[in-house]
Amino acid sequence: MNYKVLTLNKISKKGLRLLPDNFEVGDNIENPDAILVRSANLHDMEIPRSVKFIGRAGAGVNNIPLEKCAEAGIVVCNTPGANANAVKEIVAAGLLLASRKLNDGIAWAKTLPDQDVDVAKAIEKGKSQFAGPELAGKKLGIVGLGAIGVLVANMAVDLGMRVYGYDPYISIENAWGLSRKVKRAKSLEGVFANCDYVTLHLPYMEETKNIVNEDLLSQAKDLRLLNFARGGLVDNAALKTALEDGRVAVYVTDFPNEETLALPNTINVPHLGASTPESEENCAVMAVQEMIDYLTEGNIVHSVNYPDVDMGRMDNVGRITICHHNVPNMIAQVTTILANDNINISDMTNKNRGNFAYTMIDVDSPIGAKVKEDLYKIKGVTRVRILK
């Protein structure tokens, strides 16, 4: 079977080179089976019905209409952890920028040649205005202990910081990777009240919109706040007040907008967190691998709108995959249709994620053309694929 892949952004060639010969890829593909995207906005795009998979070469999926895709039976996957090291390193830079007034000092030094002064003497005389605290021994609160948050926490421990992590939903895998020196914070209020630095590492969604608000910032005392996660996590109006009255000493963000550019004591980094060649390659490789596995084998890895399901490679006559609503009696209706067509099931799995579910069925009997048509007649089925 041949597959067509539409790229909406520049995707690293290291990832695209992994595509088998039966994959056609380009930025002007009609009726694609899959889309690979980085930052392009898909909310206003008329996504073709032929699309079965969207791969986001990166972690954030704000640019993709997840619910709309789920309703259309389009599996959307991202690449968590692929850019984690790149973000970890820029957070290290953010901590230093927030502490040591490097930006101000460098900008001031550039003005000296125009002042007709002895530069060396002027620097020795004026450098004290840019003094700032060291990181060692300071308290760092990390909100969100995913792939990036864990790396940041462990790095901060190595820098000699006293690290407190807050994440009620931390995965077992990430917990295993966390340094034993990281202490558990029981509340966001405690993090903001007790820490000298706070860095955000959580996704943007309705539940996290403006999660850093007036209530949290009222707890802060001379806080240095970093946001290398997502725009929209911080209430800019509340932040402005906190910066003006000194509760927040410095704000460092990788997501500037008109409001943050006008804030005092704010360092606006132009969204450089994952802007490394290594990160772009890692994201592309992971997204392409996820796409190949889904299109050819039906397996779902790192989905953000359907459950992850993996039944390995096909060893039987065929495999049926069904995207559907998570409703009662779905499996019974599916198996009845297969039984009526004398199809024997050799293996099956069904998992759900919120309102949507995914069923994979391996069979050792030939699959007639009418089966797919009958499965689509079941109310709540959004996509049926027959893989042979």
Number of domains: 3
CATH class of the largest domain: Alpha Beta
Indicate the low-confidence ranges by residue numbers. Answer: none
Helix content: 25-40%
CATH architecture title of the largest domain: 3-Layer(aba) Sandwich
Q: How far do the termini sit from each other? A: 9 Å
Mean pLDDT: 96
DSSP strand count: 16
CATH topology of the largest domain: Rossmann fold
- What is the rounded Rg? 25 Å
CATH superfamily of the largest domain: NAD(P)-binding Rossmann-like Domain
Largest sheet: 7 strands, parallel
Q: What is the helix/strand order?
A: EHEEEHEHHHEHEHEHEHEHEHEHEHEEHE
Task: Please characterize this protein's 3D structure.
33% of the residues lie in helices and 21% in strands. The protein is α/β, with parallel strands linked by helices and 388 residues long. It has three domains: 1-82 and 274-305, Rossmann fold (3-Layer(aba) Sandwich), CATH 3.40.50.720; 84-268, NAD(P)-binding Rossmann-like Domain (Rossmann fold); 309-388, Alpha-Beta Plaits (2-Layer Sandwich), CATH 3.30.70.260. The strands form three sheets. It has a seven-stranded parallel β-sheet with strand order 8-7-6-9-10-11-12, sandwiched between helices. Helix 3 crosses helix 6 (147-158). The N and C termini lie close together (9 Å).
